[in-house]
Specification:
Layout lengths: L1 H17 L4 H32 L4 H33 L6 H21 L11 H21 L8 H27 L9 H18 L5 H49 L2 H28 L7 E4 H9 L8 E9 L2 E5 L1 H19 L2 E10 L3 E8 L6 H6 L18 H11 L3 E7 L3 E9 L6 E2 L5 E6 L4
Parallel strand pairs: 2-4
Antiparallel strand pairs: 1-3, 2-9, 3-8, 4-5, 5-7, 6-7
Length: 469
């Protein structure tokens, strides 16, 4: 049980520290912490208190630890079902009204108060009255399981994260329900000892998910902080470089202009031609560094109210002559007016569309979709190009990383720029790729961040722009 206690509390603290503002993270952290409290009670009962008793330590210390054992045991038995039900309601928000949610959370606590007042107090052999508590705990856990499994996912791209949560959380909780409540209510006391196996499996799934795909956005948060730090370094570096080169190029142009005037005056045509080469090279250097600087400088967002669907269509319009044999299909949730910077968002979306067209090399299908969920608006750009493997998708947002080898104009800054634009709008950029299938890029705007308001009745408009054949 020592392993279970340490493992569950470690998981709980990771979830809580990763994003304390997320109600989903907070309640799942509470599930882990309450579950670990039961393991702590067992550790105190089987290891620590006997050790102190055997070595004849302070009697007062033994009494303090016994009280701590009781508190840990009761908090586990009563806290786990409640926290799990609250996690399910946060994960799949089935109640829209915050007032109703608060009422429901308080109502779920009323039986606990009744058990504490009207059932016998804690003792080592029977910490709670299992025959009574089982009629509250089991419905809470089963209802929470149903909410998690039957609720509608907010997007197909998130299905992997959903199933990671299902396999990491539900088996340990359901097994604990059977061992710690149902069987003990039937008189099979001490069955909680077998919880360690399923808890170990759940912790294993959590760790695998955390270090491969991410878990409840934790890996995304780590990657985001790394990318933000990288972008700040690149912004600072290119700003200094741009300033230094601009000054030196200015000096070069001043002196080459004087040299060119002298060459003209003295009739030295060959010298004049050489000077022109140097001048052209200096202009090229300045233009290149200026383009890098524009993509990496700190963005100033000038938000204004604009209909998101109209912005997407306006961004697509200039690309239509480049489609060739590529089939374009758009699906747009109409009527969403948002406060955002149309120039920056349009440029970011244009980068994604341009990348998709280049990847398909004149053949394939391009899908641009604007979809809505309860809390977010998502713009998806999907192509049927060669796709990206896991290594490429992991590096795609790093500045100066590019798969467009041999192209002078490609600095590998298009996706980092788009990521930076989304961060400035309180949103996110995600990439999903599969070799031989294609690439999907998602721009997700939280409705609250962009003050999204829907005008009129929501409807979907679909269209396609065909090319030759």
């Amino acid at each position: 049980m020592l392993f279970v206690w340490i493992a569950l509390w470690s998981v709980g603290l990771i979830l809580l520290l990763a994003d304390p503002r997320s109600s989903v993270n907070r309640w799942l952290s509470a599930v882990a912490l309450f579950g670990g409290a039961g393991a702590l009670a067992a550790t105190l009962d089987n290891v620590i208190v006997p050790y102190i008793h055997e070595h004849r330590q302070s009697r007062e210390m033994e009494q303090i630890l016994f009280r701590a054992q009781g508190i840990a045991s009761l908090s586990s038995y009563y806290g786990l079902p409640y926290a799990f039900m609250m996690f399910a309601m946060a994960y799949r928000p089935i109640i829209a009204s915050s007032r109703v949610r608060r009422f429901a959370s308080l109502t779920l606590l009323l039986p606990v108060a009744g058990f504490l007042i009207f059932t016998p107090s804690y003792n080592e052999n029977s910490p709670i009255t299992f025959t009574a508590v089982v009629w509250w705990a089991v419905p809470c856990i089963l209802a929470g399981t149903a909410i998690i499994l039957l609720g509608r996912s907010s997007g197909g791209d998130l299905s992997r994260a959903h199933w990671l949560i299902v396999f990491a959380v539900l088996p340990p909780v359901l097994f604990t329900m059977a061992m710690s409540y149902v069987l003990q209510a039937m008189g099979w006391l001490g069955m909680w000892r077998y919880n360690v196996w399923f808890v170990g499996i759940g912790v294993g799934v959590f760790l695998i998910g955390l270090f491969t795909y991410g878990f409840l956005g934790i890996r995304v948060l780590i990657d985001r902080r790394r990318l933000d730090s990288t972008l700040r370094a690149v912004t600072s570096g290119t700003s200094i470089l741009h300033h230094a080169i601009k000054n030196d190029i200015g000096k070069m142009r001043l002196f080459t202009d004087k040299m060119a005037a002298y060459a003209v005056k003295s009739g030295q045509d060959e010298l004049l031609e050489d000077i022109r080469v140097v001048q052209n090279a200096s202009r090229h250097i300045q233009e290149m560094i200026a383009r890098v600087h524009r993509r990496t400088e700190d963005l100033i967002v000038r938000p204004e109210e604009i209909e998101l669907g109209a912005l997407v269509r306006a961004t697509l319009k200039p690309f239509e002559p480049r489609l060739g044999n590529i089939r374009l299909q758009t699906t747009v949730a109409e009527g969403w007016v948002c406060r955002l910077d149309p120039a920056q968002v349009g440029e970011a979306l244009g980068n994604l569309i341009g990348n998709a067209l280049e990847a398909m090399n004149g053949e394939g299908r391009l899908f641009v979709t604007v979809r809505e969920s309860k809390r977010e608006l998502t713009v998806e750009v999907r192509d049927t190009g060669p796709g990206m493997d896991r290594t490429q998708t992991a590096k795609a947002l790093e500045p100066f990383y590019t798969t467009k080898g041999g192209k002078e104009t490609s600095f590998g800054l298009g996706l980092p720029y788009a990521y930076y634009v989304m961060r400035k709008h309180g949103g996110s950029l995600r990439i999903r790729g599969k070799v031989g299938v294609g690439t999907r890029v998602y721009l997700t705007f939280p409705k609250r961040s962009v003050k999204a308001v829907r005008l009129g009745e929501n409807r979907y408009a679909e269209g396609g722009v065909g090319a030759h054949g």
